[in-house]
Amino acid sequence: MAIHTVEIPQDSEVFGKTVSAFANFGYSAAVRSHGHLFIAGTIGRRADGTIPDDIEEQTRIAIQRIEEILRLEGLDLSALVDVTSYHVDIHRHLAGFSKAKAQLINPPYPTWSLIGVSGLASPGLLVEIRATAAYPDVS
Question: What's the pTM?
Answer without folding.
Answer: 0.93
